[in-house]
Task: inverse folding
């Protein structure tokens, strides 16, 4: 019997070429597939809710995989073992069984992106914040942002026909 599972995870993408497997660079997908395949003793492709670029982080990512086995997976134990095997930059929060037709990418109902900008140099957040070397004009930035409320159609920022 085949069972589909959702994996809830997060990662610091600084050391990865992105989510998707690439020929010569380490990816988040590759790391998880390798560890998962070793633990359940069969190659196990995973499908992510989206694909981040090189150096991009994800706080709340969902992926899915299918497992065919005699007995259901012990997801608590699998989650614990994956976290032991995976590099410190990847955390698995939970693994849950879902309906066979549930899809991490196509069933996603929302995506959110956060961008952090600072004027100050900070040795503890350089992987997560863009440092703008000159003073920012917050009033001008807020005025520009207000103009977004004049629009309702943002399809030009979307991938069409997917």
Result:
């Amino acid at each position: 019997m085949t069972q589909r599972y959702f994996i809830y995870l997060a990662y610091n993408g600084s050391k990865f070429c992105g989510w998707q497997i690439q020929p010569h660079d380490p990816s988040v997908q590759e790391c998880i597939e390798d560890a998962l395949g070793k633990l359940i003793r069969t190659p196990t492709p995973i499908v992510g809710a989206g694909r981040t670029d090189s150096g991009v982080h994800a706080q709340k990512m969902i992926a899915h995989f299918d497992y065919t086995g005699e007995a259901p997976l012990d997801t608590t134990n699998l989650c614990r073992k994956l976290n032991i095997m995976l590099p410190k930059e990847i955390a698995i929060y939970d693994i849950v069984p879902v309906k066979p037709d549930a899809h991490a990418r196509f069933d996603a109902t929302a995506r959110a992106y956060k961008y952090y900008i600072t004027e100050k140099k900070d040795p503890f957040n350089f992987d997560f914040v863009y440092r703008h070397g000159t003073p920012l004009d917050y009033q001008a930035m807020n005025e520009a942002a207000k103009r977004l409320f004049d629009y309702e159609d943002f399809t030009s920022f979307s991938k069409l026909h997917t």
In short: The CA atoms of residues 3 and 14 lie 33 Å apart. The longest strand covers residues 58-68. The chain has a mean pLDDT of 93.
